[in-house]
Amino acid sequence: MDRRPAIFRDPALQQAFDDDGFVRFRLFTPEQVQRLHDFYLATEAAHEVIADQKKFHATNETSNAALIADADRFIKSVMAEEIDKHFTGYKTIAANYLVKQPSERSVLGPHQDLRFVDELQFYSLNIWVATEPTHKANGGLRFIRGSHRWLDTVRALPSYPWPYRSIQEQLDPYFTDIQTEVGDCVVLNHAAIHASYPNLSDHRRIAAILALIPEGADIRHYFLPEGDPAREVEEYTMTLEDFIHLKVGQRPEHATLVRTFHHDFSAVGQDFLVRKAGPAPAAAIHTSSPYDRFKQKLSALFRRS
Ligand SMILES: O=C(O)CCC(=O)C(=O)O
C-alpha cells in the first residue's frame, strides 16, 4: 500500500493517480477555461517573444519577470475557485502557460519532470488544463502508465542523467494517448514518464499548469553539475523565491543544503522495460523524439529572470 499522504478527496481519483501516475477528470467550467484563455490572449505578445526559437514554450522561459508573476497569480486565482473541492492537504508551487505552436518542432519527447520533493515520502504533481479539446493532432498528452513507480529517479539539474536514456527509443509503444475536452484537467505525477504530440493543427494549443506538493513536504532541488554523474548530488530546501532566482547551470544562491548523497545514475539495461511493463504492445506507432530537446527545455525553465 502507498503510504504517501493522499491529496485527492475522492479515493477513486487517488487510486487512479497512484496506480497510473496520472488521472483525467472534469475540474473547470467552460467560463473558467475561457478566462484562462483570455488572459493568455491579453499577454500573447509578451508570451510569444520566444515563439520563433521555441515551438513549445512556457511562461517562465520568457525572462519577463512581470509576466511570469502576473501569469502565476492569474492562473492560481482561477484554479483556486475549484481545487479545494477536489484536493486536500496541498500547497501550491508555480503556475505557467504551456504553449505549442503549430509545428512539427513542438513535439515533446518522453521525460519525467523535475523532482521537487523527497519522493520516498511524498510526490509532486501538475494540474494541466488546456483551453480547447486536445488530441493527437493538436499536441495531446501521452503517458506510460505506472512508470512513476519503476525506479527512484533523481532528476538533477543541470546534468539530468536520465536512467531511461538507454531505452528511450523503445518507449513509444508503451504510451497511452489522453484526449481532453474543455474543462477537463489532467493531474500528473512529476515522476510519470510523459510526452506530448507535435501540434499539427493550424493554431497554437494553450494549456495552463499549476504545480502542487503535499503540505507536509519541503520543496527540494537536486543539483549535479554536467560531466560527472559519479559526483555527489546536492539536495537543497528551496523557497519559491529561490526557484525564481535560480540561474541556469548554477547552484541556488540562498537555499539551504540539506545533504549530499551518491545516487546510481546508470542507464537501465535493455531487459528493464519488459520486466517493468511487459512485451511491447502490438500496435506500436513510432514517433519518438530526442531526449536532448527535453534537457534543453528543463534548463531553459531556470534562466535568469
Ligand atoms: O503541455 C504539454 O504538452 C506537456 C506538459 C508537460 O510535460 C508537463 O506538464 O509536465
Question: Can you walk me through this structure?
Answer:
- It is a single chain.
- By secondary structure, the chain is α+β, with helices and mostly antiparallel strands.
- The protein has a single domain (11-215, 276-290), classed as Jelly Rolls, CATH 2.60.120.
- The chain has 7 helices and 14 strands.
- The chain has a 6-stranded antiparallel beta sheet with strand order 1-9-5-11-3-2. Strands 4-10-6-8 form a 4-stranded antiparallel beta sheet.
- The N and C termini lie far apart (42 Å).
- 2-oxoglutaric acid binds next to strand 3, strand 5, strand 10 and strand 11.
List the keywords.
Jelly Rolls, six-stranded antiparallel β-sheet, binds 2-oxoglutaric acid, alpha+beta
Helices and strands in order, then pairings?
Elements: H1 11-20, E1 22-26, H2 30-42, H3 44-47, E2 56-58, H4 65-86, E3 90-100, E4 108-111, E5 125-130, E6 141-143, E7 157-158, E8 176-178, E9 184-189, E10 194-196, E11 205-214, E12 219-224, E13 233-238, H5 240-244, E14 256-261, H6 272-277, H7 291-300
Parallel strand pairs: 7-12
Antiparallel strand pairs: 1-9, 2-3, 3-11, 4-10, 5-9, 5-11, 6-8, 6-10, 12-13, 13-14
The chain binds 2-oxoglutaric acid.
2-oxoglutaric acid is lined by residues 98, 100, 108, 113, 126, 128, 139, 141, 194, 196, 207, 209.
Question: Which value, in Å, is the CA radius of gyration?
Answer: 18 Å
Q: Average the pLDDT over all residues and give the rounded result.
A: 91
| Main sheet: strands, sense, barrel | 6 strands, antiparallel
**Span between N and C termini?**
42 Å
How many strands?
Answer: 14
Question: What is the element string, with H for helices and E for strands?
Answer: HEHHEHEEEEEEEEEEEHEHH
CATH superfamily: q2cbj1_9rhob like domain
Tally of contiguous helical segments? 7
**CATH topology name:** Jelly Rolls
Low-pLDDT windows of residues: 284-293, 299-305
Question: How many structural domains?
Answer: 1
Dominant shape: globular
